[in-house]
Amino acid sequence: MKQEKDFSLLIDRYMNGEMNKEELNWFEGEASRDKTLAAEIKLQYEIGSSILDEEEMDLRAQLARIEHEIMPRKAKFIQFRNFNKGAAAAVASILLILAVAAWLLWSNGIPRSNDQLFARYYEPYKSLASVRSGDLAIDNLLTNALQKYEQGDFLSALPLFEQVLNNNSKDATSRFYQGISFMETQRYQNAGNSFHAVIDHRDNLFIEQAQWYLGLCYLRTEENEKAREQFTRIAESGSFYSRNAKRILRAMR
Predict the structure, then answer these.
(1) For the whole model, what pTM was predicted?
(2) In angstroms, rounded to a whole number, what is the distance separating the alpha carbons of residues 22 and 34?
(3) Cβ–Cβ < 8 Å for 159, 144
(4) Is residue 179 classed exposed, middle or buried when 0-12, 13-18 and 19+ CB atoms within 10 A define those classes?
(5) Is residue 49 pLDDT above 70, yes or no?
(6) Fewest CB within a 10 Å sphere: which of 71, 172, 177, 209?
(7) Could you tell me if 189 and 180 are in contact, meaning their C-beta atoms sit under 8 angstroms apart?
(8) CA 192: distance to chain centroid?
């Protein structure tokens, strides 16, 4: 119980960006080894995201009510050529309220560091239930690789994906899950190369997913310009990942 309590305090500091670099490296090392701790961090981020969504909806509703109430008044003010000081002050106060509310809407509670954003939005992609290439030997290799992947044994899955790719370098399924396996083993540059290959292939089911995970790789390796460009493309694409891409863009330093 003591360990859980201590970790709870550490999770709060981690999420609030209060750790120095040395503490951050230690804590993330602990999270990579302790699945319970990693799950708790993810849960806290999901709770925070849910609360933020509710607060955003409430604030939007409040802004709409304020605008509805003040617009008729502003219209009346404009009809008079000579503003009195009280009217001008009232308009200024209303505009200030709207500006503060808008700032809170976009920035309140959003994590700021790349590490925090990565922890909040990254999770490994679920594997396909079955795959068929028409080649029994390749199918067996890929099935075994995906089984290792599902078990979380990414180190064992990687050489199996590599064997499939040695036989067929254009196998987008193996290339995509190879990329996720690289991410799970902290090899983000290798993962990025895998996702680039999937995107360049152009004729597969994993292009949107590969674009998303490529952006997360850039985020994790502090390549902020590339990350912004990648998430901007995703945000403008209207894909499943567009909403989260917009959130990341708002939150990036």
Answers:
(1) 0.60
(2) 18
(3) no
(4) buried
(5) no
(6) 71
(7) no
(8) 16
The predicted-structure confidence for 12-35, as pLDDT tens digits, reads as follows 777 766 777 677 778 777 877 787
Q: Which two tokens stand for residue 166?
A: 């040695």
**Identity of the amino acid at 171:** D
The rounded Cα 220 to chain-centroid distance in angstroms is 11
Could you tell me which residues come within 8 angstroms of residue 229 by beta carbon, excluding any fewer than 6 positions away?
Answer: none
User: Distance between CA 59 and CA 233 in Å, rounded?
Assistant: 28
| Cβ–Cβ under 8 Å, residues 224 and 114 | yes
171-192 pLDDT, tens digit per residue, is: 999 999 999 999 999 999 999 9
Residues 6+ apart with CB under 8 A from 59: 101, 104, 105
Query: What pLDDT, in 10s, does the model give residues 126-178?
Result: 886 555 555 666 778 999 999 999 999 999 999 999 999 999 999 999 999 99
First to last CA, the chain: 36
Question: Which residues contact residue 88 at a Cβ distance below 8 angstroms, ignoring those fewer than 6 apart?
Answer: none
- CA dihedral sign, ordered 29, 32, 35, 36: positive
